[in-house]
Structure formats: C-alpha cells, structure tokens
C-alpha cells in the first residue's frame, strides 16, 4: 500500500510512536494526516509540523460518542493507524482487576471501536488498518501480565479483522515492536529503539505489504526466534 497521497488517521498522535508516525507520514508524502488525541491542546506541536496537511481531532478511544464524531469528521480516510495504548505495571496475581479493564478498554475495545467506526470509509477506499500490538502479543513478560494479555487479544482480533476484511480488499497490518524509547517504556530496563526509527520501519512494512511488521532489532530477533522455536521465546520472556 502506498503512503504517497494517502489520507491517514493516527490515534494517540500527540507523543511517542504516534507523533513519530505523523511526522513519518508527512515525510513520505501523505496528502492529509488526522492527528487524534484526548487533549486537543497536546497536538499544537504536531499540527505545527505542517498546518496545511495535519488536522487535529479530539479523540478518547474509550468514548463511543467521540469515536463516532471522529469517523464522521474524517470520512476520507484510507489508512487508519490504531496506535493509542495504555500500559499499567503489575503481575496477573496481584494487579488490580480494574487496571486490566482499563487496559482492555484502550488496547482492545478502543481499537475495535475505532476500526468499526471507520469501516465504511476504509471499505470505500479499499484502504488499510494498522494495529499497534507488541512482541508481548506473542508471549507475556512478567510484571506486565495484564498489558500482555490485552495485546495478545488485540493480536487475535487483528487476525480476525484480516479475514473479515478480505472480501472488501482492506489490508490489515499487525505491528509487533520491542522496547521503544517513549514515556510508556521509560521504566523498562532494556535497550530501546527510537520512535522515529520504529515509525519509519512501520511505514516501510506497509509499503511492502508485510502483514506482520517487526519494526526494530529486538522485534526482528523475536520474529526469527518465534519462527524457529516459540517455546524458547516464551522461556526467554519469562526470565526477562
Ligand atoms: N513503547 C514501547 O516500548 C512499545 C512497545 C510495543 C508496543 N507499543 C505500543 O505502541 C503504541 C504507542 O505507544 P507509545 O510507546 O508511543 O506510548 P506512549 O508514549 O505512552 O503514548 C501513548 C499514547 O496513547 C494515548 N492514549 C492513551 N489512552 C488513550 C485513550 N483512552 N484515548 C486516546 N489516546 C490514548 C496517549 O495519550 P495521552 O497523551 O492523552 O495520555 C498517548 O498519545 C501503544 O499501542 C503501545 O502499546 C509500545
């Protein structure tokens, strides 16, 4: 799928990977980028990247009314990037179940709400959907059990979406980053990749029609390890 000339919509576009994606989309010649965030004011710097092509949209992906309004406002979208995400630390035996619900509301239900709302536009454009998953969609890491679970279900839903969109020709991409140097991973004691590099690799994966995108060196190692021996990757993560 070509980025040049596309009209994209990015959730969670005010910081981290989302903001880097907006910048990368502009660099690759997108016609228009809807940058969505919970707080409109947090998008000022993103709109300033190119006020002619960036449109700020207020969107909390847990708010069904805002999701419907965003889809109405952005009916010309052909590339939807479900980037907004939430991570709470904690193991599955002790973390508050409300925290699991909160992460599911963003990482799973949010992704579904937004994709369903944009389905007519994407179908009309024969466009694409990109879901930000994680290497922990494949196997969980200790200390982020609920987040891992939310990303594992989002992976399953991404596979289902791909099957359900087959007839309409809409492409569905799953992205499986390793640790990325953003606010989300600031307390993760691992080597991290810059969000700009991750955004660039995501767009290259879309342009190459790679359904599963592993956009950083850690992720590439996981992809190779997963193909060779999934249990070894699970054991590596469990000891991480
Ligand atoms: N960083 C990593 O190591 C890593 C690795 C694998 C996958 N990922 C995934 O990549 C995506 C981007 O992560 P990131 O690292 O850029 O995280 P980040 O820096 O923490 O940014 C998260 C973004 O999601 C937004 N968001 C959170 N809840 C939202 C909601 N209810 N509605 C709308 N937006 C919401 C945040 O908005 P506010 O500013 O309003 O809070 C922010 O823009 C996420 O899906 C994450 O799970 C990240």
Automatic annotation (TrEMBL):
It comes from the Bacteria. Keywords: Oxidoreductase. GO terms for cellular component: cytosol. One of its GO terms (molecular function) is oxidoreductase activity. InterPro entries: NAD(P)-bd_dom_sf, SDR_fam. PANTHER family: OS04G0390700 PROTEIN, RETINOL DEHYDROGENASE-RELATED. Belongs to the short-chain dehydrogenases/reductases (SDR) family. This is NAD(P)-dependent dehydrogenase (Short-subunit alcohol dehydrogenase family).
